[in-house]
Amino acid sequence: MKAIRGATTLSADTPEEVRVKVKELLSQIVKTNELRPDEIICIMLSSTADIRSLYPAKAAREAGFAHCALYSSLEPDMQGSLPLCVRVMLLTESDNAVKHVYLHGARVLRKDISSVINIALDGPAGSGKSTVSKLVAQKLDILSLDTGAMYRAAALKCIRAGADYAEKNQVERVIENIDLRVEYRDGRQLTLLDGEDVSDKIRTAQISMLASYVSAYPFVRNKMVQLQRKIASEVSCILDGRDIGTNVLPGCPYKFYLTASPEVRACRRFEEDRAKGAKLTFEQTLKDINERDAQDKNRAVAPLKCAEDAIVIDTSDMTAEEVANAVCEKIQEKI
After folding, report:
1. NCBIfam families, from UniProt (predicted)?
2. I need a labelling partner for 265 at 20 to 30 A (CA). Which of 89, 121, 125, 180 fits?
């Protein structure tokens, strides 16, 4: 008999939140460990003293785990304990290797696996990196660092300074003294350029294309990568870009490469731009996507490339939620 441990945290003490989080935790344990119902002997759950709305065992029964013995206990109110936390110990007769599951910040309970973790998410324009990165960050309770936003801000700085992006010396003078900071407020990344929040202003087709040119300069990339590595060394986060797994964090244990056909990516970008009031046609958007791909793949410095040890996910026929779930499942398998 083997014991599989796990834990999760709630965002609030409500019956529905208990049901959702307990079901998610147990389902993830079963899926990650490839368990059959008849292999589960008993599920023992405990909850911190601040959870009073519903017994976790009742939530487990409602989630379809009534075929085995269920037990709930209330933990004492201990100073410094993780708030709104549900823990589980599942006893099984499975011969598979045990994989423990810790979700939504509960990972800190495992001191052996609680060091800073980084996730690399690479892929071409329109593959869904930014959206998926935010969803994964929410699911794992870590930060999402949009590295592309940093290059976009550098491009905006060049435009405002009147620099010719084709002139290396002009770009270098502008970037040398750039005041670029990344902050997180209410779970959202803010890109601050010279103290101004430019998070929305950098999301245009013009900025996107110029960012590709500007990022090709070694001194620009070096400055951005230095900042990205500093952030990644201090806090668990997922970084999305085009060379995270190959250049920024080559030693990252969790690498993913998202892809999709140019037509699918152009359609996504076209819908995004149209929602913002852009007047580009789909044909022009597709042309821009193909040109951006060529620039990113053929640039001399840190070109767009799938890391050899990255997990490739074709997002063409998947929703962002489905992709995020696939990423989280693969990460959980490695923990």
Report:
1. CM_mono_aroH, cmk
2. 180
